[in-house]
Amino acid sequence: MPSLVQKGDTIYVHPEFLSDSKSNRMTVSWSQNWFNRTEKYKLCKFTVKSGGDAKGLIYVQANKVAEFKSKKTGGEDFTLTVDESFQYGQDKDQTKRFLVFHDTDNRPYQHRFVENTLTELGDDALDYVQNMGFTGAHDIGDLAKNFVGDYLHNF
User: Fold this and answer.
1) CB atoms < 10 A from the CB of 14, how many?
2) SS3 content of the chain, % helix, strand, coil (to 5)
3) Pairing of β 97-101 and β 55-61
4) pLDDT by residue (tens digit) across 91-138?
5) Taking the CB of residue 52, how many other CB atoms lie within 10 A of it?
6) pTM score
């Protein structure tokens, strides 16, 4: 079983995912304190460099990409250390995990990210979902059930 990304892990994010391209941009909508909220995110693939074999997805709030980039610790490549500024979502079996870098005052449920990944990215969605560790995931409802009702977790 693959290990899960943890606080203190060093991860690598390919810089192309943080470019101005809109191909990996998505919107997450939710209700918070009786108000409708919406935020744009960049969806990026990552690989853990500090050991283990974890890989997955990280959602970076679009207006926080510069702050995210400032956390870079690597020279030529784009590496950074997972710390308390990240949150994560994981399936109910705690075998798959994704990261979120955003304003932690935002309180969307985990399934909002999963559902929107599948619905907004069209043909590219399957590739991203497989990077979350789900193989053969074609049904939005079945996949989202793994995350329903839970808020993102803090490290």
Assistant:
1) 13
2) 25, 30, 45
3) parallel
4) 888 888 899 999 999 999 888 887 777 666 666 666 666 666 655 555
5) 14
6) 0.82
